[in-house]
Structures are given as structure tokens and as C-alpha cells.
Amino acid sequence: MAKRYWLFKSEPDCFSIEDLAASPDQTAHWDGVRNYQARNLLRDDVKKGDEVLFYHSSAKPTGIAGLCVVSRAGYPDHTAWDPDSEHFDPKARPDNPIWYMVDVTLKKKLPETLPLKVLKETAGLEEMMVTQRGARLSVQPVRPNEWKIIRKLLRDYL
DNA sequence: GCCAACGTTGGC
DNA sequence: GCCAACGTTGGC
Predict the structure, then answer these.
(1) In the prediction, which pLDDT does A123 show?
(2) Cystine design at A5: which of A100, A114, A147, A154 (Cβ 3.0–4.6 Å)?
(3) Distance A23 CA to C1 C1' (A)
(4) Can you list the alpha helix ranges (DSSP code H) found in chain A?
(5) What domains appear along chain A, each with residue ranges and CATH number?
(6) Average pLDDT over residues A25-54
(7) Do strands A5-10 and A51-56 pair parallel, antiparallel, or not at all (unpaired)?
């Protein structure tokens, strides 16, 4: 299977690129996804070696904060059956995990966030979910040509 | 804080 | 299974 590309959204108040950079081996689990469509992607489609845009939502500014790589494919999100977790789901059990997570490892923290505004103004990114209003999915596939455009943007913009 | 766009829930 | 009400997300 060819390497795929993804955009993962997180509110930096909850988990930021700085938090990932400060994690052991700059690696962390991407837990707390509680949306079935995103869950299905994490469980079935996100594979080790896939590349990820780390997106800060509800931030100043909102946009791409860094690049990561998937270091472990989907496995049960144990925070779901931890009553102390913010993302506790009373229906989840170890033998019926419901929710899944992956591990991500930091590749590059950008010196500054590439703003959503710039993505919206860039030709070729019009069909990206993140540039369309109301696209709330927290795990979004990124097309290879979009990845290429964004990599070039990152070189030119920063 | 506002509000549009979703997703989920629950009565029927 | 429909759909209205409600809750959440997330840009602005």
C-alpha cells in the first residue's frame, strides 16, 4: 500500500505541536477521537509511515503547525474506558474498545503556523476539507497533489 | 461570544 | 426509520 497523507486536527489547548515535541521520543498517541467517521479512518486506513499535517484548530492563528509521521497504526483507545479521562465513554470496554487511536512522531515543528487563510488562498487546495466551511472531521485524508502543494507552500512561505 | 454546519439522541 | 431537538465544532 502506497503511503497516504492525512491532516489531524487538535485544539492546542488540549494537545499542541509543542506538547508533541515535549513527549518522550517526540511520540504520542492521538487519542480522544470520538467521531465514527474519524474512528474508521484511524482504525482501518491510517498506516505506519503515513505522513500527517498537524493542524491547530481554535488557535491564533488556526492552521498547520507541523509535520508528523504515523509510528503505529490503529489500536484501541484505552482512554475510552478510563473514568478519569475527559474522553471517557461508559460503553467502551477492553473487549469492545469502540474507539481507536494511532501513534504519531514529530518530524518538524514549523517556526510559525501556516494559517488556514493561506491554504484557502492557494490554488489547488480548494477541494481540501479543511478549506471548506463546515468540514469538522478531525482526521482528514489529503490528496498527494495537495500534499505536494503544501510542501512547496511551507518552503516558500516560511 | 456568535452562529452555521454537522452529528447524535430519543420520542413516536 | 423519521425528524425535531439538542449538543458540539470551529472559524470568525
Answers:
(1) 92
(2) A147
(3) 47
(4) 17-21, 36-40, 116-121, 144-157
(5) 5-157 (3.10.590.10)
(6) 95
(7) parallel
Q: Is the CB of A113 under 7 A from strand C?
A: no
Dig out the grid coordinates for A42 from the structure. 484511524
Positions of chain B reached by protein Cβ under 7 A: 4-8
Residue range A82-140, pLDDT digits in tens = 888 888 888 888 888 999 999 999 999 999 999 999 999 999 999 999 999 878 999 99
pTM above 0.85, yes or no: yes
Distance (Å, rounded) from C-alpha A41 to C-alpha A100? 9
- Which helix (H) or strand (E) is A28 found in, with range? strand A27-29
What distance, in Å, lies between the first and last C-alpha atoms of chain A? 32
Residue recorded with cell 492525512: A6
Q: Which nucleotides of C are covered by protein (CB under 7 A)?
A: 9-12
Taking 90 as the threshold, does the pLDDT of residue A146 lie above it? yes
The answer to whether A113 touches A56, Cβ cutoff 8 Å, is yes
Nearest alpha carbon to residue A105 among A32, A40, A30, A43: A30
Tell me if A155 sits within 8 A of A62, measured CB to CB: no
